[in-house]
Amino acid sequence: MTGAMQAVHDLVDALHQARPEDLPAVASQAAAGLGAVDVELFLVDYGQVELLPLAVTGGEPGEPVRIDGTLAGRAYTSGEPVRGGAPERIWVPVVNGADRLGVLAARLAAPLGDDAALVRDLRALAGAFAGIVATRRTYGDTLERTRRRLPMQLAAEIIWNQLPPLTFATPDAAVAAILEPCYDVGGDAFDYAINGSVLHVAVFDAVGHGIAASALTSLAISAYRNARRCGLDLVDSCRSVDKWVHAQYPDGYVTAILGELDIDTGTYRKISAGHPEELLLRDGRLVRTLLAPTALPLGLGYLGDPMPAVAEERLEPGDALLLYTDGVVEARTGDGEQFGIDRLVECVTKALADQLRPAETMRRLVRTLLTHQQDQLQDDATALLLTWP
């Protein structure tokens, strides 16, 4: 058995009765078999600004590490191991599928040199550990507390507990999303699911703010998933969500885009329920905005045609679709200047031209958006980037 496989076996064996707060010690024990010492696990914060250390049981946590401008941050943003520092350490990304969870930092007992096999073994260990981190987060609060730089408001807690991971990818398509203000979001949300050759995506924006808006959004997400899992098509899914929103919140409504991408053919079908239009990006530029709206907001369908219209677009290889809520383009500076469509397109197309991964593209978008509004968003801002393939 190779050193990496033995380390993974040791990791799995040690985790059968481990608490979330035991993960750093378990990681250190497994990595020691590869010649690694002083192992630390860093988790990314909700705003993707810092990497926050997970303290060893009974110990004090180390210092947070900024993502921008550090070796640890380079490993996180690039998805590749990074070596350096004094004493020399290796920073290995902890990634569950395409979802970036943080980094594993290790100092080696002997100089690394050009031992590519050891780097590969550490990466395999970090990959196994990523899946463990993703599942252990539901067994206690330690991992959640570690990731929070600020207290999370109840409305945001409700929404985050509804969401899938920020990033998902297959060889044929990728999804990456952002949600801000991450500690105080209310009515915005997103969802996605892959079923066979169909990738479902959705963005929601409920009227209002605070807990009332987050409860309304939670109902819309749950109704959407219920319809999808019952096998309803796009039109009937939209009608089902509309019915439930109106029944439970007769004075409320939710704007939304419900979309489906056939990842085999590139055919994209969607219903825009009173929502801003998607942006179609190709070869580093905005090709056009897609037709919107095609239906009334969810909850208001009784006022118009009971059969929402479906719009269709045939994507080309390499295309990207950007879905967003109005809080993105309407974010204003102190003197009233909006972020706007042009700035949004420029930010995303520049990142894509630099061949950044979708997740890093969206992280940079949210940093640019917050800088524009001096870190004080006046409304929820959500965006979802869908790339094919």
Task: Tell me what the structure shows.
With 389 residues, the protein is of the alpha+beta class. The chain folds into two domains: 145 residues, 2-Layer Sandwich (Beta-Lactamase), CATH 3.30.450.40; 235 residues, Phosphatase 2c, domain 1 (4-Layer Sandwich), CATH 3.60.40. It contains eleven helices and 17 strands. A hairpin with a 2-residue loop joins strand 7 and strand 8. Helix 6 runs parallel beside helix 7. The mean pLDDT is 91.
Write a short abstract of this structure.
This protein is an alpha+beta fold and 389 residues long. Helices cover 34% and strands 28% of the residues. β5 and β6 form a beta hairpin.
Which helices and strands, and how do they pair?
Layout: H1 3-14, H2 23-32, E1 36-44, E2 50-53, E3 65-66, H3 71-78, E4 82-84, E5 89-96, E6 99-108, H4 116-136, H5 142-147, H6 154-160, E7 167-170, E8 173-180, E9 188-195, E10 198-206, H7 210-229, H8 234-248, E11 254-262, E12 267-273, E13 279-282, E14 285-289, E15 311-314, E16 319-324, H9 326-329, H10 340-353, H11 358-372, E17 381-388
Antiparallel strand pairs: 1-2, 1-6, 2-3, 4-5, 5-6, 7-8, 8-17, 9-10, 10-11, 11-12, 12-15, 13-14, 13-16, 16-17
Helix pairs in contact: 1-2, 1-4, 2-4, 6-7, 7-8, 10-11
Class inferred from helices and paired strands: alpha+beta
CA-CA gap between termini: 37 Å
**CATH fold-level assignment of the largest domain:** Phosphatase 2c, domain 1
Order of helices and strands: HHEEEHEEEHHHEEEEHHEEEEEEHHHE
Helix content: 25-40%
With strands numbered from the N-terminus, the spatial order across the biggest sheet is 3-2-1-6-5-4
Q: Whole-number radius of gyration? A: 22 Å
**Strands, count:** 17
**What is the CATH C level class of the largest domain, in words?**
Alpha Beta
Quaternary class: single chain
CATH architecture of the largest domain: 4-Layer Sandwich
Report the sheet with the most strands, covering strand number, pairing sense and barrel closure. Answer: 6 strands, antiparallel
Task: Please tell me what the overall shape is.
Answer: globular
Distinct helical segment count: 11
Question: Which ranges are low-confidence, i.e. pLDDT below 50, for 5 or more consecutive residues?
Answer: none
